[in-house]
Amino acid sequence: MIFKQPQADLTGLNTLGFTCHAPWLVRADHPDELPEIFDFALSLNLPVFPLGGGSNVILRSTLNALVLQQQARPLEWPQQLPDQLCLRVPAGNNWHQLVMETTAWGYHGLENLALIPGQAGAAPIQNIGAYGAEVADCLLAVEGWWLPRNGQAARFEVIPAADCALAYRDSRFKRDWKGRFVITALQLQLKRQAEPRLGYGDLAERLQRRLQQQVDDLPLPQLIAETVADIRREKLPDPAVIGNVGSFFKNPLVSHQQAEQLKADWPQLPTYRAEQGVKLAAGWLIDQCGFKGFQQGAVGVHDRQALVLVHQGGGDAEQLLALAEKIRAEVQKRFAVSLEREPEVVGCQ
């Protein structure tokens, strides 16, 4: 069933809580309904903008598009659970609920990605990651529709993960496929037996304490997911309480030579090995510039995690972007390191 709402208020559909209006909001119960919605958008001469949980977008006051949302649908589990499972996940499903459901069945793959806000369909776009893991580690393929283009009708395709150019917080869905493909489902490879990734921060130590204290014999993936969720709750604000989009900046990637020079000047700077260079902790850089807890009108920097910019209410995207530019400029001036924004800016003021 298709639900259509004209003159839609998107304020409650983005985790920053910014006021935004769109000419149409359309919700689809099933992926097969999407071609009809695409035709409706064409008749209105409007682009289609898929909006999931609204947790990685900065909405300006007007979004001149047909905003598409896909409803959650139950997972289809086999009667006999194998050691390795290819699980099909509808795009509209809540990501954290997916993590907790799969780990409760004893499957490894998503446990380090617990409590990341948003819906499953957005996961490959950003190649979401946390605590040393990324969705690319277990993604087999994405399903979805190519939007109508140059007189050609919408076309369904299953795209292998290897063709999506998944990288650190990046994919083809953010570049040459942006605005062209709507994800309707993920195909994930999950395993009962796997080596846990516990090398990030104090995750291993926290998990060990939980193992010593547990009363119920819970699966190890579930224990890891619960531990990760506990850590995230301590460090990150709840979007339902304080408007935010989680990490606002990517951890910058620099050369080995630049990393060595920075470490010589700043021995406490956290660094992480990467395939091409060294990652720096963006939150640490921002904190060293004195921005943790900083407030500028209705927006500011969280007092426990400098990587998170917050909206206290009554502000707008322009105020947040002005603060972000102020932070970026100060980090560039002090460390000669360029910060790149994670969330996408959408709409016009």
Short structural summary:
The chain has helices at residues 34-43, 95-104, 123-126, 203-213, 220-235, 256-265, 282-288, 317-335, and strands at 2-9, 21-28, 48-50, 57-59, 66-70, 84-90, 129-130, 133-134, 139-146, 155-160, 181-191, 243-247, 253-254, 271-274, 277-280, 295-296, 299-301, 308-311, 344-346. The chain is an alpha+beta fold and 349 residues long. It folds into three domains: 2-70, Uridine Diphospho-n-acetylenolpyruvylglucosamine Reductase, domain 2, CATH 3.30.43; 84-235, Uridine Diphospho-n-acetylenolpyruvylglucosamine Reductase, domain 3 (2-Layer Sandwich), CATH 3.30.465; 243-346, UDP-N-acetylenolpyruvoylglucosamine reductase, C-terminal domain (Uridine Diphospho-n-acetylenolpyruvylglucosamine Reductase, domain 1, Alpha-Beta Complex).
